[in-house]
# Entry
Amino acid sequence: MIRILSVAIPTRILTLVLTETAILFGCYFFAAWVDPDIAEIGTFVQFDAGLQRAAIVVGTILLGLYFRDLYAQVRIRSRLEMIQELITVFAAAFIAQGLIHYVANDYTLPRKMMLIGSPLALAALIAWQL
# Structure
């Protein structure tokens, strides 16, 4: 099983996906910790479906990174092009949150958490990929 996984997905790509997932979750939970509207992060995660809400945003961003072919090309040729691609992915995540708000309001990330976590995550991903 592990041998099939190493043949199908290169180790560098898998490491990049896992570390970016951890960075994104860390940035959004840091934003939840900083957000004054969220009284305690433990209750937000446990009772307000905070983990599921953050997972939807992180999944949307990772899907956007995949569809923009940022995992196909590990080497970055142009920094400006990479930054533009990441901004496009985060804009798509904001649009997805808007669409989710119309469908199921309970699964959207709180506004301040999204507005604090997204620029932080964008800066962290730019620094990580460079």
Q: What stands out?
A: The first helix runs from residue 2 to 8. The chain has six helices and no strands. Residues 64 and 92 are 7 Å apart (CA to CA). The chain has one domain: 2-129.
